[in-house]
C-alpha cells in the first residue's frame, strides 16, 4: 500500500495542491490558517487508513471472510482520499465561485477536458469535480 501512496505523492497533479489554499483568502485575516489542499488530502488519507484498519479489526469477529475488508480496501480508501481534491483551482472555492461562476459552459468544459457529460451524475458535478474526473481519466 505504501508504494502506491508514495508514487501518487510524487505526481505533479498532487504536488500542485501545495500551492492551493484549502481556506482561500482566510489566511489574510487569520494568520494561522495556512492550510494547503495537499495538507488536507494527506490528513484525509491518514484518517482513511485509520478508518480502514479499524473496520478490519472491528469486523473480524462478526463478518464472514468473504465480506471482510482487505488491505486492498485500505489502499483504495487512501488513494481516493489523496485524489479527491485534484481539480481545485487557485484559491479553492473562491476561484470556482468568482472566476468560473455558476453559469459556465459545462458542455464546453466537458468537451475540452474529455469528460463525458451524458450521465446525470456528471451534469450535477461542480466544476472542480469535473476537473478532478478529467485528471483521473
Give a short summary of the structure.
With 137 residues, this protein is mostly helical. The chain contains eight helices and no strands. Helix 1 packs parallel to helix 4 and helix 3 runs antiparallel to helix 4.
Give a written overview of the molecule.
The chain is mainly alpha-helical and 137 residues long. The chain has two domains: 90 residues, Hypothetical protein af1432 (Orthogonal Bundle), CATH 1.10.3210.10; 36 residues, no CATH class. The chain is built from eight helices and no strands. Helix 1 packs parallel to helix 4 and helix 3 packs antiparallel against helix 4. The mean pLDDT is 85.
